[in-house]
Amino acid sequence: MAMSLKRPQLEENLTAEKRHKIKRKKAPWWHSDIIYQVYPRSFCDSSGDGTGDLKGIASKADYLKELGVGTVWLSPIFSSPMADFGYDVANFTAIEPLFGTMDDFDALRAALHDRGLRLVLDFVPNHSSDEHEWFVKSRRKEEPYADYYIWADPKGFDEEGQPIPPNNWLSVFRGPAWTWAEERQQFYFHQFLAKQPDLNFRNQRVRDEMKNILKFWLDKGIDGFRIDAIKHLFEVADLSQDEPVAKNSGVEDPMDYGCLSHPFTVNQPETFEVVKEWRDIMDQYPEKLMMVEMWDRDIGEVMKYYGSDSVPLADFPFNFLLIDSFRNRSDLSGAALKDALDLWMDNMPEGKWPNWVLGNHDNGRVGSRFGEDLIDALNMLVLLLPGTPVTYYGEEIGMVDATVSWEETQDPQGRHYGREKYLEHSRDPARTPMQWDSSAFAGFTKGKSTWLPVNKNYKTLNVQAQSRADTSHLKIYKELARLRKREPFAGGRTAYPVVTREAFSVLRYLEGYESYLLVMNTSEEELEVDLHQHANMELPPTAEVVLRSVTDTAEATVPGSEVNLSELKLVAGEGLLLRFAEF
Prior knowledge:
- It is a single chain.
- This protein is of the alpha/beta class.
- It folds into three domains: about 1-30 and about 490-583, Sandwich (Immunoglobulin-like), CATH 2.60.40; about 35-125 and about 320-480, TIM Barrel (Alpha-Beta Barrel); about 125-200 and about 235-265, Oligo-1,6-glucosidase, Domain 2 (Oligo-1,6-glucosidase, domain 2, Alpha-Beta Complex), CATH 3.90.400.
- The chain is built from 18 helices and 23 strands.
- Strand 9 and strand 10 form a beta hairpin.
- The model is unreliable at about 1-25 (pLDDT under 50).
């Protein structure tokens, strides 16, 4: 079907010479992979103790391969007292016994590699556990560890003789970011829990230690790192400075992190020097991925972590715009969705690679934030856009937040806010065990309990049931994983023919191949849309249905059917993937 394209909505045509050069250049593997985040405590328990482990993950290697993901990213598995579930590391080069042994890790890596899957680890450089050998010795002022952490004298003493912290800095987890160490008679700084003291990256020994840790795991054969809390790596050298109160924050609790703005404790210029050092280490090994966790309201600050052609840094900073721009369904519209995509693409440095993140271990699940009717549509979107999609375990079957009582709450962030407010801050509801089947504890464990309660909907919402069903979130996800390998998605171009408040569409196309059009209904009502009336380009009269959300059961949109683009009917939250001939 011939189509004439209106400018400037679409990219300029590539010359044959440019297309040839693009095809000849081999893209890095993460351009085509889906990255799948596994929260180890919650994926699969092989031991029966109620907590997931490495053997459990390895037992699901075939599932991960069949799912169509290419890379498995593990949240921290290092030795830890588990005050923050692995983000408080006591030994950066040892496996936490709760998860298994180093032999179990080697077996997991081999199981994934044997299936053509890659393995990426979380790296947590900003802080260690207070039980780490370095901190124990630093607290005693033992050399060379005395300055491995951020120590400060008190500003003074109060009327009761208690030491006063050197400044007003607050912890991300609420409360003062300074804790008094009686043994050393100084305060130490922690941007998170008191059991997570911040390392001092102004100390060259600390920087060398971290480089050696990277090399240790790279030598073990892993395929890359996701680097945690990167913007917190440095603080200003002058610890006497108070951070200012945040303007128009709406935060009334003076101990809440959001009460202050943070010019002295995040995104310091020295951070980029260290990231460059790590990039140089990574580049000594072939094809290793470096992602950084970076959230900031200023998109310019986020983009700095890409670096430049002359000073490359991360392969990409995580793109949290699809999380932060839409905290609930009322925030979502076709126009707002387009704005979020454009904000990243328009600000991304030339030649860099995008990524798309719908959910993770720190945020509510997609179905709970947006509505379960949008699960398939949003998976269609992020898996078919140009860029690397990151999927949080369970999103492929549409898991939703579970109810976790105060008595069952494990998350220190939630517990810090107390019984009255824990539900507003706890991350536990999105961390509950993976739902494999309808047997006891959703097939997650053979034991008698689980570290967090299994969602009560597991009897009907699980992998086994969705594998057997004629249509399901899981089957749609698998088909999307297959489709994204096709040329229009792998190397094609992108346009947005129709964007309104209720409707959103994205077109993927490439000369010589069929074109694919995803149409989404972002509203909570059934929608009939005339794509020809609203399109900023010419579209064919009809198209073939490839995939549709599980919520659509109409005869007219059965995959393989032909639909009229002038009167396209979509149920609430639906995603409809269409195909038509080259234009």
